[in-house]
UniProtKB/TrEMBL annotation:
This is dTDP-fucosamine acetyltransferase. One of its GO terms (molecular function) is acyltransferase activity, transferring groups other than amino-acyl groups. CDD domains: NAT_SF. Residues 147-225 form the N-acetyltransferase domain. Pfam families: Acetyltransf_1. Its EC number is 2.3.1.210. It comes from Fundidesulfovibrio magnetotacticus. The keyword Transferase applies.
Amino acid sequence: MNPTCLARQAFDSEAFAVDYYRVVNPAPEPLGRELDALAGPFMADAKLDAQDIEGSKALQRLGFRKVCTQPAFVLDLAGARGAAAGEPQAACALPETDLAAHAANFPFSRFGLDPMIAPEERTRHQARWIANTMASPDVLKFLDNGAFVSFKIRDAVAVIDLISVLPAARGRGSLLLGRLKAWAAARGLKRIEVTTESENVPACLFYQKNGYRLERASVALHMRK
Ligand SMILES: CC(C)(COP(=O)(O)OP(=O)(O)OC[C@H]1O[C@@H](n2cnc3c(N)ncnc32)[C@H](O)[C@@H]1OP(=O)(O)O)[C@@H](O)C(=O)NCCC(=O)NCCS
């Protein structure tokens, strides 16, 4: 069968050591058939607009679990001025101990909120994600002691990939967002976008305190068989 509703995700499959699929077409009938045809253990996820209540119910009837709501916050840079406070880094690496500490710093990620994913699976996945992010020349980052923010530029938008501040470095998060804002404004970018989880109240407060506003939200659904 030629799958049209599910796309295998190479990175997640490797990080979780099990076939991992993303729903690319949520039409319930063909999706149900493709899920039924999968042999062996697998994981799958789907992302829908949070207001798509019927779509979300249809996926839950197929066995998906609603794991969290993911609000997207935006900082509009219209009128913002910036004297760029240094250039971000491209490819780099974190010391192993820092990598492990940052990997454990995301209990509110959608994998951290999923009761079917063990904490060690979540931190292994997160560690690989952070290591990939650091190694990638296409993901830019501002680094500080115990803290980093990574982001990509798409059109004239800076999209934050990850931001992590270890508890001992608290306060550096706002400093990093300030550096990113100054750099992005100096480059003439239009906005900065970031997605988090609604359970991550500290992060939601953090973005609002730094001038970001809620723009939209998605719902993350997971399946593990
Ligand atoms: C979210 C995070 C980046 C904030 O960085 P930080 O350096 O601690 O934030 P700041 O000290 O600059 O805080 C600014 C504001 O954020 C909010 N905030 C930060 N930490 C908070 C906490 N533990 N509880 C409640 N609000 C918090 C507050 O509104 C704070 O303002 P205040 O100090 O006047 O109360 C950091 O907590 C973190 O790394 N969390 C784990 C990783 C994560 O969830 N990243 C975001 C994923 S999208």
